[in-house]
Design goal:
With 487 residues, the protein is mostly beta strands. Strands 21-20-24-17-16-27-30-29 form an eight-stranded mixed beta sheet. The relative contact order is 0.12.
Length: 487
C-alpha cells in the first residue's frame, strides 16, 4: 500500500515537472566532476554538473542520489557556478523502480536548445566514516575508512565523469580498484597522486538512475586514510536562550554531551605517556586535549563547568561589541581545556554559558510595534556533528503574538510557558528540535513578539507588592499581643 502511494506521488509530481521517464532526452551531462573532502564526523562533497539542454524551455534539472547517500546527507544546496543565490530543490522521494532518490532543481532561467551552464551541488555527509582498526593504543595513529559508490548516478546521458577523494594527509593506506568498468574506461580506472585518489574519467555513461544499470555497473569503493584530528560527535545539545529586556541582554546556556567517536583505547591510559606526548608536541590525533570555540563579540559573564564543578582551565579573548549594521565580522575566541583528555570512546558532559548585549541581536520594529531578536542555533565545535539538538528561546514575561522563523526545517517546534524567578504568569518559550547539525547549520532563529507597556511594569509592581505585603505583615505582627497574662 505504501509503495502505491509513493508511485502516485511520483506520478503527480511528474505533472508539474518534466516526466521522470523522459528526463533523459531533456538534458545531457557534458561532464560531472565530484570532489569529496575526507574528514572525520563530517565529509564535504561538491559535485559540478556541466549540463546542456536538448529541448526548448528547460527549467528543471533532476538529480539522483543513491538511497545510502541520501540517508547520510544532512545538508544540501544547489546553485549556479559563480552565483551566490541558492536554487530551489524539491524532493521527489525514493523511487523503488530506479533504486535512487530523486530531486528536482529549479533553474534561475530557462535554457534553450544547446544552451549550457554549470550546476554546483554541495552537501555535507555525517556518520559516513568509521575507525579502522576500531581499537588502537595511546600512541598509535588514527585510521579511518570511507565508503561510497563508484559512479555518480544521473537520469541523463553523461559524456565524462570523475570523482576525486581528497585527504588532509598524504598518508593514504589503501583504496579500492574497481572491476567490470571496461566499457567506460580508456586509461586507468583509478589513480593516486599525493593526498588525492581519482576514480575516472569514465566516458559515455548512459542514464544510470535505474535498477538495471545499478545492478550491473555500480559498486562500492573505499578509501583507508590517516586522519590527524579527533572525530567528535555531540550526542545531545540543549541550548537555552533567554531574552531579558530589564537586563538588556541575551543569555545563552549550552548543555553539551561530547563524545569522541575515534578508535577506542586498547589497554590502559597512561598519564605519563600523555604528558610526554604533550610536552614534545606529538599528541596522538585521536586524543582531544582542548577546544577552540568562536563566541559572539561583546560576550560577558562567560562560565564553563562540568559535573564536578567549575573548570578554570580556559582562556577567553573577547572581541568588542559590534553594531548590527557593521559589515565587520568579529568573534570572541574561547579556548577550553576539559578536565581530562578525551580519548576514543570517552564522553565529556559540560555546560557553557555567556551573556551578549541585546542591542547586538535585537531590534524594534516601530511600524508594527514588535521586537525582533536573532538567536544563533548553536556554537559549532570544529569538526563535530550534533546528533540531537533542542533549542529553547525564552521570551520576556507577557510577550504576545509570537512569530518565529527557523533558518532550516526543524523536526518539531512547540510553544510552552516557563516560569522563572519573580515571574507571575510565566514566560512564553519556543522549543525547536533538530537532528544531525553540521558547520553549515550555524544560522539564526528569528523571533518576533509584542510586549505591552503594562507588562513592562508588571515585574516591578510585583516586587513592590511583595515588599509592601512583607512590611504590612511585620507591621501587623508588632501589634498583635500573644501573651496569655497581661500586666
Amino acid at each position: 500500500m505504501l509503495r502505491c502511494w509513493r508511485l502516485l506521488y511520483l506520478f503527480l509530481a511528474s505533472s508539474f515537472y518534466p516526466s521522470l521517464s523522459l528526463a533523459g532526452p531533456s538534458f545531457e551531462n557534458t561532464a560531472i566532476v565530484r570532489t569529496v573532502d575526507l574528514g572525520g564526523s563530517l565529509v564535504h562533497v561538491s559535485t559540478t554538473y556541466a549540463i546542456k539542454a536538448l529541448e526548448h524551455d528547460q527549467t528543471v534539472y533532476h538529480i539522483a542520489l543513491s538511497n545510502a547517500e541520501k540517508e547520510r546527507t544532512s545538508w544540501i544546496q544547489a546553485k549556479i557556478k559563480g552565483q551566490a543565490k541558492p536554487l530551489a530543490i524539491t524532493d521527489l522521494g525514493e523511487d523503488d523502480t530506479s533504486a535512487s532518490y530523486l530531486m528536482a532543481v529549479t533553474l534561475s532561467k530557462s535554457l534553450s536548445v544547446n544552451a549550457t551552464l554549470n550546476l554546483v551541488l554541495e552537501s555535507v555527509q555525517t556518520h559516513a566514516t568509521r575507525p579502522h582498526p576500531d581499537r588502537v593504543s595511546q600512541a598509535e595513529a588514527q585510521l579511518l575508512k570511507y565508503e561510497a559508490d563508484l559512479l555518480i548516478l544521473s537520469p541523463y546521458n553523461t559524456l565524462v565523469q570523475r570523482t576525486k577523494f581528497k585527504s588532509s594527509s598524504p598518508n593514504i593506506i589503501s583504496y579500492s580498484t574497481p572491476e567490470g568498468v571496461e566499457p567506460f574506461v580508456r586509461d586507468s580506472p583509478v589513480t593516486k597522486s599525493g593526498a588525492s585518489v581519482t576514480y575516472g574519467p569514465y566516458h559515455n555513461v548512459q542514464p544510470s538512475a535505474n535498477a538495471k544499470f545499478v545492478s550491473k555497473y555500480q559498486q562500492p569503493v573505499s578509501i583507508h586514510y590517516n586522519f590527524e584530528h579527533p572525530v567528535l560527535e555531540v550526542k545531545r545539545l540543549e541550548r537555552s536562550a533567554e531574552i531579558s529586556h530589564w537586563g538588556a541582554n541575551l543569555n545563552i546556556e549550552d548543555k553539551i554531551h561530547l563524545y569522541n567517536a575515534g578508535p577506542t583505547l586498547k589497554g590502559h591510559f597512561s598519564r605519563l605517556e600523555y604528558q610526554s606526548q604533550n610536552f614534545f608536541g606529538r599528541l596522538s590525533p585521536h586524543i582531544l586535549s582542548r577546544l577552540i570555540l568562536h563566541l559572539p563579540s561583546g560576550v560577558t559573564n562567560t562560565y564553563f563547568y562540568d559535573l564536578n564543578g567549575n573548570v578554570s582551565t580556559s582562556n577567553l579573548r573577547v572581541a568588542p561589541s559590534m553594531p548590527k549594521t557593521s559589515k565587520i565580522n568579529q568573534f570572541s575566541v574561547l579556548e577550553m581545556r576539559p578536565r581530562y583528555p578525551l580519548l576514543g570512546g570517552w564522553n565529556y558532559s559540560f555546560t557553557l554559558g555567556f551573556d551578549t548585549p541585546l542591542q547586538d541581536s535585537g531590534s524594534w520594529d516601530a511600524t508594527n510595534g514588535r521586537y525582533i531578536v536573532a538567536v544563533p542555533v548553536l556554537t559549532h565545535i570544529p569538526g563535530s556533528v550534533v546528533d540531537e539538538a533542542i533549542v529553547k528561546v525564552i521570551m520576556p514575561e507577557g510577550a504576545t503574538d509570537l512569530e518565529f522563523i527557523s533558518p532550516f526545517p526543524a523536526l518539531s517546534s512547540s510553544v510552552s510557558t516557563q516560569t522563572s524567578y519573580l515571574d507571575t504568569i510565566g514566560r512564553p518559550t519556543v522549543t525547536f528540535t533538530y537532528k544531525d547539525l553540521t558547520d553549515r547549520h550555524t544560522g539564526v532563529i528569528y523571533v518576533s513578539y509584542k510586549v505591552p507597556l503594562t507588562t513592562h511594569l508588571q515585574k516591578p509592581l510585583a516586587v513592590g507588592v511583595a515588599f509592601f505585603s512583607l512590611f504590612m505583615l511585620g507591621f501587623a505582627a508588632k501589634r498583635v499581643d500573644l501573651r496569655l497574662h497581661k500586666k
